[in-house]
Design brief:
Number of strands: 4
Radius of gyration: 20 Å
Strand order of the largest sheet: 1-2-3-4
Strand content: 5-15%
Structural class: alpha/beta
Distance between the termini: 57 Å
Number of helices: 7
Helix content: 40-55%
Amino acid sequence: MLIVQGLVDYLSEDFDINTLSVLQEVVDHIIDYLPEDVEALKSCSATCSAMMRRSIPYLFSSITVRMSCIADFVDVLQPSRRLPATVKTLVFVDDVLEEIRPSLIGYVVFRLLRVQSLHFKGVFHIFSSPPPVAISQPHERPLPKLVFENTAM
């Protein structure tokens, strides 16, 4: 009954800011049932800002970055405040033949604050010759999962 009354108050002139928190709890509860349904999350995020705020962490919890587009991804990542806190799984795909700048990979990894799993798919010639790219340093946060899939593209 409280939810129905909250909706009535929200739609009427007697709107109370406390009602909004009840409505946000309902929105959060709905979105939390959809973590694997990407299409539903996309639809919810396009519906309103309250749904978008809750959907974004699910939609961007796993990101795949093609090395041919890493500079573009860095351009998106630099001004973003929310994206670095949402990514938990980061996948790099080596789809280029030329040399890749390890500093870009390092920048992306350390900019994403909550990365728990880091995957490299492809040849990644930068790892075949010393010195290797430092993925985590002793004073930095450790990565619980690091995966290399050396497959020809």
